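Input (BnaA01g12990D protein):
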Amino acid sequence: MSSSTFVFLFLLSFLTSFRACAQNPTYVYRICPNTTTFSRNSTYLANLRTLLSSLSSPNASYATGFQNATVGQPPDRVTGLYLCRGDVTPEVCRRCVAFAVNETFTQCPNAREVTLYYEECMLRYSNGNILSTLNANGEFSMENTQSITSNLVRFTELVLSTMNQAATVASNSSRKFDTVNAFTDFQTLHGLVQCTPDLTNQDCLDCLSRIINQLPTDRIGGRVMVPSCFSRFELYLFYNEAAADRTPQPQLNSAPPPPPPISIPSPRPGESGNSTVIVIAVVVPTTVIFLLLVAVLIFRAKRKTTAYETEPLADGDDIATAGSLQFDFKAIEAATDKFSQENKLGQGGFGQVYKVLINPLLTYFSIYINMLRLCIKTIK
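Output:
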């Protein structure tokens, strides 16, 4: 054999093996009590082979992800089922079940009662009646290695409430399956719960409630599995979200809704020709204006007595007359309809708030601007 042919055959064998390995389901756990066993030439073994062949046949119900069967008569009767995770495709389900069937006699060679867990499916059989019967024994749990370092109580409450919400939805559905999302601290909590569909709604809810309380909520992820149901949560998306027929869940810990927009009222009847707006019409007491003017004059007087003043104020920046800062009370009274209660909007930090016409509003704003301008120039 030439070297090139050898290399080609080696690569072909390697790629074929790699592809087959990549398609293998991920093994998780097994339950093989070995309390009762069977011999290699027993009737039970023959019935078991028939059962496993039926469950892994091309005509099995991979689209529904669940099937059960019973073969033989007591004491050699065997009952079995498979359950594929609710978010996997029928083809992934078929491959997982076929792989589990082939692994049965390797994982649990002589046991009459076996449960094999894979990421994508579960295979179970027994010499007892396991159909439509709640079994929460043989609990198996796994947890993420990373612990919750802050807000443990809050995180625990979120996990339990979210997973119990999913359990309620799953128990009332025909598939006995649900996934759920919740949002916390800029991260998304992903959860998945599932029961075998042969359980009643109440049995499914009881099973899920029991194992949800056993979840390792002090970690950022974990799962608990029993023969009749399982649950899992993570801070990353571990299931096929597109394939899971998930009911949208309300967002938790979301920001509060924005405040409603402020509406602008229409003019009152008879106020044609002038638009009205909502403004803060501040009726400033005469005392405040007087104190402000006194403070400005005192400050200017002190500056003139020091040697640091280098130039006089420019023309027009000084206070020309006292009348330039006086308010026309009659104009304010007319603009607010004599301070009527209909025009009153509320109470502000400087007095009562009224709705006024646009022209008086501009007048008052110009007064405030002039006052501010004079104070700035004076300080400079």
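The chain has three domains: 23-126, 140-234, 267-300+316-380.
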